[in-house]
């Protein structure tokens, strides 16, 4: 009784008698393998590659709706699994991904800026509405800018959240901050000497008067503790 390794089958294309390992597995085929050997199938594939690809493409085009519905359903049924897989992949390939993104951006700079421009033009109203919403929903806050070298402090209030720190930095970097003391200090000590510190985060709809009162109270507290402030609008 021959065992599986010694069993052979004749290829219907080249006619050679070959061991079963020379054929691809195929459940409904005789002896559980395909009728044509691996070599013949590969040859057949190479000879018909373009035709096969065209057929696949045609199938995809003719069944686009069905395929995308299947994908959507699969996605919905396996959402957690898929997002966990994606997350893991991103974590394990962080460097590879960021390198690829960087390269893509470099190679497609014009295309990307054209796409952005087009997207903006097509969605102008939606985008400006969203920006308005975004700005309106930023938290109000009382904040400080600390010079960690001299311990001098700038006290401020804003309804623009952390964006306010970006605004300060942009002015300071360009040498056009409206507070000359702070600007001078920034020029001397450099950006790394300064820290942004949120003292109190407040609801976005808090009115300006309440913010100004809180700001004034903080300034007075600092002064009574002997701190030196950059502010020029120090309350009496
Ligand atoms: Zn063959």
List the helices and strands and how they pair.
Blueprint: E1 8-10, E2 17-19, H1 38-47, H2 49-62, H3 64-77, H4 79-92, H5 94-107, H6 109-122, H7 124-137, E3 140-147, E4 153-158, H8 163-173, H9 180-189, E5 194-202, H10 208-224
Antiparallel strand pairs: 1-2, 3-4, 3-5
- Indicate the mean pLDDT: 93
- Spatial shape: elongated
Which hetero compounds are present in the coordinates?
A: zinc ion
Number of strands: 5
CATH architecture of the domain at 139-224: 3-Layer(aba) Sandwich
Structural class: alpha+beta
CATH topology of the domain at 139-224: GIY-YIG endonuclease
Span between termini: 108 Å
Numbering strands along the chain, what is their spatial order in the largest sheet?
4-3-5
Number of helices: 10
What proportion of the residues is helical, as a percent range?
55-70%
Q: Please, what is the CATH homologous superfamily of the domain at 139-224? A: GIY-YIG endonuclease
Strand content: 5-15%
Order of helices and strands: EEHHHHHHHEEHHEH
Briefly say what this structure is:
With 236 residues, the protein is an alpha+beta fold.
């Amino acid at each position: 009784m021959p065992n599986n390794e010694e069993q052979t089958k004749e290829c219907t294309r080249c006619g050679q008698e070959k061991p079963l390992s020379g054929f691809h597995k195929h459940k409904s085929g005789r002896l559980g393998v395909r009728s044509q050997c691996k070599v013949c199938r590969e040859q057949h594939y190479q000879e018909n590659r373009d035709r096969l690809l065209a057929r696949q493409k045609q199938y995809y085009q003719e069944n686009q709706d069905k395929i995308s519905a299947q994908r959507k359903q699969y996605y919905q049924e396996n959402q957690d699994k898929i997002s966990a897989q994606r997350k893991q992949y991103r974590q394990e390939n962080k460097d590879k991904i960021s390198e690829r993104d960087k390269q893509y951006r470099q190679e497609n700079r014009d295309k990307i800026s054209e796409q952005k421009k087009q997207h903006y033009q097509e969605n102008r109203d939606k985008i400006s509405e969203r920006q308005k919403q975004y700005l309106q929903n930023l938290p109000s806050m009382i904040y400080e800018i600390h010079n960690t070298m001299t311990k001098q402090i700038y006290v401020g209030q804003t309804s623009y959240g952390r964006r306010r720190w970006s605004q300060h930095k942009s002015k300071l970097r360009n040498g056009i901050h409206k507070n000359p003391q702070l600007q001078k200090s920034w020029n001397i000590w450099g950006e790394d000497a300064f820290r942004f510190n949120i003292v109190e985060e407040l609801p976005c709809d808090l009115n300006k008067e309440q913010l100004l009162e809180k700001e004034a109270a903080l300034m007075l507290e600092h002064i009574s503790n002997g701190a030196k402030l950059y502010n020029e609008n120090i309350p009496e």
